[in-house]
Amino acid sequence: MPVAASAIYFLNLRGDVLINRLYRDDVGGNMVDAFRTHIMQTKELGTCPVRQIGGCSFFYMRISNVYIVIVVSNNANVACAFKFVVEAVALFRSYFGGAFDEDAIRNNFVLIYELLDEIMDFGYPQNLSPEILKLYITQEGVRSPFSSKPSDRPVPNATLQVTGAVGWRREGLVYKKNEVFLDIVESVNLLMSSKGSVLRCDVTGKILMKCFLSGMPDLKLGLNDKIGLEKEAQLKSRPAKSGKSIELDDVTFHQCVNLTRFNSEKTVSFVPPDGEFELMKYRITEGVNLPFKVLPTIKELGRSRIEVNVKVKSVFGAKMFALGVVVKIPVPKQTAKTNFTVTSGRAKYNASIDSLVWKIRKFPGQTESTLSAEVELISTTTEKKSWTRPPIQMEFQVPMFTASGLRVRFLKVWEKSGYNTVEWVRYITKAGSYEIRC
Amino acid sequence: MSRNDSKYFSTTKKGEIPELKEELNSQYKDKRKDAVKKVIAAMTVGKDVSSLFTDVVNCMQTENLELKKLVYLYLINYAKSQPDLAILAVNTFVKDSQDPNPLIRALAVRTMGCIRVDKITEYLCDPLQRCLKDDDPYVRKTAAICVAKLYDINAELVEDRGFLDSLKDLISDNNPMVVANAVAALAEIQDNSSRPIFELTSTTLTKLLTALNECTEWGQVFILDALSRYKAADAREAENIVERVTPRLQHANCAVVLSSVKMILQQMELITSTDVVRNLCKKMAPPLVTLLSAEPEIQYVALRNINLIVQRRPTILAHEIKVFFCKYNDPIYVKMEKLEIMIKLASDRNIDQVLLEFKEYATEVDVDFVRKAVRAIGRCAIKLERAAERCISVLLELIKIKVNYVVQEAIIVIKDIFRRYPNTYESIIATLCENLDTLDEPEAKASMIWIIGEYAERIDNADELLESFLENFPEEPAQVQLQLLTATVKLFLKKPTEGPQQMIQVVLNNATAETDNPDLRDRAYIYWRLLSTDPEAAKDVVLAEKPVITDDSNQLDPSLLDELLVNIATLSSVYHKPPDAFVTRTHSLAQKTEDGDYPEGDEIGYSESHANPANGAASPPSSSYSVPASVAPASPPPSALVPDLLGDLMGMDDSVVPLDQTATPAGPALPIVLPASTGQGLQISAQLTRQDGQIFYSMLFENSTQVPLDGFMIQFNKNTFGLAAAGPLQVPQLQPGTSTRTLLPMVLFQNMSQGPPNSLLQVAVKNNQQPMWYFNDKFSFHVLFTEDGKMERSTFLETWRSLPDSNEVSKDFPDIVVGGVDVTLDLLAASNVFFIAKRKNANQDVFYFSAKIPRGTPLLVELTTVVGNPGVKCAIKTPSPEMSAFFFEAIETLLRS
């Protein structure tokens, strides 16, 4: 059964119900007590997000300081339930202007009740697009008490748009200047062994779009991906250009993208929602350009001293630079004193995460930087267990660089009024989980 | 952008309810609206504001949509506690369902469907009929779901009023969202009905596949889930379907992806072309991998499903093992699942990489994860013969780290490796022996002892090593004691010198005289007998070659796997259990569960028609247990293997009851427990019975030997209920060709055995002419039901409510028919199962009974059946749920008789 929920609860960290909605009658109103006593107040919390207690199953997620708990009594679709929670939270954020926490829920409880009634019926998720819901659920964040018009003015087209084939865009939008912003954001995930061999490496990228376009435009996006290029060449019956092309392992698209067409023609064509949205996600595992190489040497000298030496090399173009580089080098819990020298940036010892934190604000391409440190430990007699070395972790952002080499070749906008569009494209690569074992 | 609704939560000094009442009746609109918000705020924090019902309902007729929604929300929550007042709202609902604004029409229908009050339901029909044919798709999609709601409340009404046909018409609707909701509603109704309602034909299939391209992400999930039940006619049709579904794999919504995978896997079973299958496998891999970059909770669901998928189609992810490598910051539940999949995907090609990973994990902080990583190495060794040596060297490296739990875990898996590859890796035993003193967990100790015993001839100081364990023999847990016993015997057989001889004396003494554990005692007796009678036979038995174990990392049973694959993305696929193992109640029963907010529900619960004892209970009466279809009979005592060696085993016990010389009259036929063929001409039939509140062992002896038999004695082995003879067995001298009956009075709680409960009676009977006879008698549990088991209704309800849900167990008997109600009730009453109440639920009858077993343990029973039709569902709640399996056997016996 595609039912996703019989009841949904929003709890704070103490377990108080902030708001709840029962969608079906097959779970009692007090099932949340079972959740509190069997999960929240035990060590179970956080060990497994799907649990059965009595005849009911609980799915829960923590988002900031709120637990969102879904209760069902039948063989519900768990994937659907979790996705629903994720989407619902995104919807709430969009209504509240970003924040989603205990206070935001208390301050907007009437609105949340209204949304909960709309986005799920009898446990079946309905339309969750913020764009459309904002058409007719209009409890604007702050409304002046002197506002003349009440919000119950019927919206003529709302219902058609909720259920329409283009359920994510409303009609009749007009912009003076038609603009599209494309952000290609890539996260590099790396797991490297202490000897420098790459254990796992992939890039998860997403294309974020901000559209300010009039009417109902049709868009078509061209990338330098291998399959797309080949298909295009085949259609135009000429050999593919020899330029660099990349192989996408997997792509997933926003619901506005016509999947059947993608499947047959390999083109990304869509009618975009208005404003900001995530057009697509992709993953690449072959031919990843790692922006940084890290060479750690950590020596344990006797039982009370450790010598740390970490060299970081930037391997992207010399004209580019990375911003906000942070290298976290783990040290044992019983660290007493640290001395270090760095060739650039600043380092300090952070006892709460048992790490040396080395920050470099701006890191130019094709350069290297070194940290050498001496760590003194409190010598303990009881600690027989050897230090389990957690990996070195790294954070960074490299603007105008894509680890995958992905490029936007074109973005065509077609609308029946035939206006001109300005397109802006930006690239940025960030660190995902960039870990180097040591 | 933030509102400040939190002000509605603040309370005033004046009494809250009267003040709210006043404000709700204010002449100013804004004040009324604020008052309703305060009421809702109070409801949210769990205050009872049901007394304001009339005042809130008065605010319902408003033009303000926001206010209307709040009032509706209030109604959904409190209508059930005020069913009579809820009628007041009906007029507004009906009016609203004809409002020019489609949002209001839909809202009215949606809300009415959520109010589960019978009287309102009747008024719902006409508006629903209209709304199903509404011009606006928003209203139609809401009405479609409302049919499912109504079916849940009153299935007959839905069928009588033809809503099902209207719903089926909506499948052809031109709006894809209406189609999707109609499909969801129909699929749910079908799930709860035994009649075919929603049959998937190839025309529906085509329609739905077309709608699939156009509807919302959620609608796609509804349609894909419904279609996964579709059975394609042939490979060609299956290929067509798959072709239409594969584009969905690119969807950003994980639920759409998993439901597509489910559908594709179903159809793949029919596809014969290996090329197509290979191609599909290739297409499914990337989307599955992408799921692992979602939120950790979604990753968990994906991983549990991937675990199933790779069991059926190992090729899909064969090259993707790297994506399952654990990240340092993954939550523990994700790491554990990844590890499981890594073992499944490990192959000769990637094992080196995998081993490096496992080794890394084995040095992490989380103890459970480390243990699992060590075990994973062992499982890979067992699975991949060519990699076994590398696995072992990693294990040895880990042992050298000397982290206590790593060492113990390593020893446990090494024992398994020895079982898998005998006579291959014994050279490492010396390293293992260095770590004896660190072992403190039973499983690790038992494993190490097993290794010492098995390879006693290769370990020079095996006797010393074992001796060090023997010092604490009485304090050790059972599994260690058993291993010690066996290992000592092995040692003795391999090195029959003085040292081991003394050790074996000590162990056998300890294991026979000073233990309560029947397994240990029996095993010790066997060894003792074997050793004293025939040491060569002992060698054959104890040192026999063991069968080689195999890899169990693909552990799911194929038929179970099939069932789980149909349920991809659902709870069933996460639990790895079929749905009926955890969905215990049908919805028709569950709907009677009262909401805990309404304590007054308790007052009305006891009429014949409404006697669900769970009303107002702490939580819905559902149970988390599934009962195994049959209780495995206790394994026969080891004596059955070599009976002739055991001679007077039980004769050692000096409490044997002598027989006397009285006869008893004949009675009904008894089941044969010792056939004449086994008893060298003596046949014994026996059964445990209950007469006048007393338990008897009713026995029939038939002598077809050539000699008179006399001096009968009987002895019962320790058993779960401690049944023992209350007096001597009274059997006269039995002439050849004659028979005699006797009733042996029994007592309870004399000679109780520990361990898992069972209903097996192990009996030994002796006479002066023949050897001792042993037989097993499986008695029926109902003889234990006492005459004082009758309960008052109120006591029954109280007891039911006081017991936690975890004490409830239920079982289905699909083929039992309850013919006549009165006959059945009399029959049950005769066996001390007392009738309490009965109620009707749809077409089913629900009966409640009580019974009591000795020591005052009550058994509360609920039987659900359709009189005259096969199928009985029995649920039982008791402080000792471990007894429930016997109860089910008993009730089955009673109902069948």
Automatic annotation (TrEMBL), chain A:
It is found in: Cell membrane; Membrane, Coated pit. GO terms for biological process: endocytosis; intracellular protein transport. Its main location: membrane. CDD domains: AP-2_Mu2_Cterm (cd09251), AP2_Mu_N (cd14836). Residues 177-437 form the MHD domain. The keyword Cell membrane applies. InterPro entries: Adaptor_comp_med_subunit, AP2_Mu_C_sf, AP2_Mu_N, Clathrin_mu, Clathrin_mu_CS, Longin-like_dom_sf, MHD, Mu2_C. Pfam families: Adap_comp_sub. Keywords: Cell membrane, Coated pit, Endocytosis, Membrane, Protein transport, Transport. It is a peripheral membrane protein. GO terms for cellular component: clathrin adaptor complex; clathrin-coated pit; plasma membrane. Belongs to the adaptor complexes medium subunit family. This is MHD domain-containing protein. It comes from Vigna angularis var. angularis.
Automatic annotation (TrEMBL), chain B:
SMART domains: Alpha_adaptinC2 (SM00809), B2-adapt-app_C (SM01020). Adaptor protein complexes are heterotetramers composed of two large adaptins (beta-type subunit and alpha-type or delta-type or epsilon-type or gamma-type subunit), a medium adaptin (mu-type subunit) and a small adaptin (sigma-type subunit). Residues 596-605 have a biased composition (Acidic residues). Residues 666-776 form the Clathrin adaptor alpha/beta/gamma-adaptin appendage Ig-like subdomain domain. It is found in: Cytoplasmic vesicle, Clathrin-coated vesicle membrane; Golgi apparatus, trans-Golgi network. GO terms for cellular component: clathrin adaptor complex; clathrin-coated vesicle membrane; Golgi apparatus. Residues 785-896 form the Beta-adaptin appendage C-terminal subdomain domain. It holds the Pfam family Adaptin_N. Keywords: Cytoplasmic vesicle, Golgi apparatus, Membrane, Protein transport, Transport. Subunit of clathrin-associated adaptor protein complex that plays a role in protein sorting in the late-Golgi/trans-Golgi network (TGN) and/or endosomes. The AP complexes mediate both the recruitment of clathrin to membranes and the recognition of sorting signals within the cytosolic tails of transmembrane cargo molecules. GO terms for molecular function: clathrin binding. GO terms for biological process: intracellular protein transport; vesicle-mediated transport. The keyword Protein transport applies. The keyword Transport applies. Residues 585-638 are annotated as: Disordered. Residues 611-633 have a biased composition (Low complexity). Belongs to the adaptor complexes large subunit family. This is Beta-adaptin-like protein. It is a peripheral membrane protein. It comes from Vigna unguiculata (Cowpea). InterPro entries: AP_beta (IPR026739), AP_complex_bsu_1_2_4 (IPR016342), ARM-like (IPR011989), ARM-type_fold (IPR016024), B-adaptin_app_sub_C (IPR015151), Clathrin/coatomer_adapt-like_N (IPR002553), Clathrin_a/b/g-adaptin_app_Ig (IPR008152), Clathrin_app_Ig-like_sf (IPR013041). Its main location: membrane.
